[in-house]
Fold:
Amino acid sequence: MASARPVTEPLVGRDFEKIHDEYVDFVWRTLQRLGVRTADLEDEMQEVFIVVHRRLDSFDGSARFSTWLFGICLRVAAAFRSRAHVRREQPTAEIQDQPDSASDADPEARTMRREAERRLERVLERLGLERRAVFVMFEIEGLPAGAIADMLGIPVGTVYSRLSTARAEFRAAVERLEREDARGRTR
Structure:
């Protein structure tokens, strides 16, 4: 998977296709972690890159490109989640559409990794979007609190407050999931 790294060259005149290729995995993971269902990831990912294409000239380089891109993903995911209640379809077991990047790993390791990803997704689903976004940006993507504050337009203290609440909710959700799994194994 491509890593989210700062773009050191100017983006003006840069081939959009190269930007897409470099950040497609980052956008996929980000949207998934922000609560976009697997069945809708391709559509929402396309929406992100439409926004990027339209607004690329507004990127001023004052932050990492991945930080700017995360902000777009956050807004697209929020719009998706607000529309999700209108959907009438009933999701079934979703098939993983993304190619397995660890195809050379043994099947047991792949299965364990997929299960861990599903568990993480189930836990993250239990966090509100504002706290989930801060948690994902800080804990998973490794963005500093100042960058998160700038991106979300909130004070740094609010970032730390949301992060603290999100961590507590995350721990509680993990414990709740473990209890549910334990009950399921005893039946």
User: Anything to note?
Assistant: The chain has seven helices and no strands. The domain at 1-86 is CATH 1.10.1740.10 (Rna Polymerase Sigma Factor; Chain: A). The chain has two domains: 1-86, 107-187. The radius of gyration is 18 Å.
